[in-house]
Amino acid sequence: MPIWLTLELASITTVFLLVVATPIAWWLASGKSKLRAPIGAIVTLPLVLPPSVLGFYLLVFMGPQGPLGKLTEYLGIGILTFTFPGLVVGSIVYSLPFAVQPLQAAFSSIGRRPLEVAATLGAKPRDAFFSVVLPLAKPGFITAAVLSFAHTIGEFGVVLMIGGNIPGKTQVVSTEIYSYVEALEYGKAHGLALIMVLFSFLVLLGLTYLSRKTEKMIF
To answer: Which of 24, 141, 156, 194 is the most exposed place for a label (fewest CB within 10 A)?
Structure first.
């Protein structure tokens, strides 16, 4: 059950992240606002913040006295903490840099020239973005999706803080390993840990292959 819950969490989080990260990355890559630096720093913050700190503030933010908690209660959704939707929200925030940074790099490498050419052919900015920029940024989207998915699967601190470790509800692979260690069931913990190590290795191997393939296409 925790394995399927982990895969479900990673899949949903990745889809939402690609939707949310695309406009943010495009704005950071092509915008000229003075706010790009502070916004970029905020987006990158989860990379340097301890997961327990980020998880604590998310717990407060989504709790009964938090702004999101009050909003969800007002809408009749209920409190998100210690629920699967709460895990999704926390995972989106925690993995946001892993989606934004590859997309930002992809958009920056494309530059303005393709949009200018598309404009001379009569394409509107929105049409040019969807028909020119997005196809050219495909390697960035693949990298962002793979990193977001893998990072979500490996989450522990944030998941434990905002979701607890409720079997069948919020218990994912990383927290199940923690439970096995606490119960001194090292054999079961070792088996799940090996799966995580193998998965991480395959992700890195796949990204290396993708990077080499992209370089060959460019040169």
So the answer is: 194
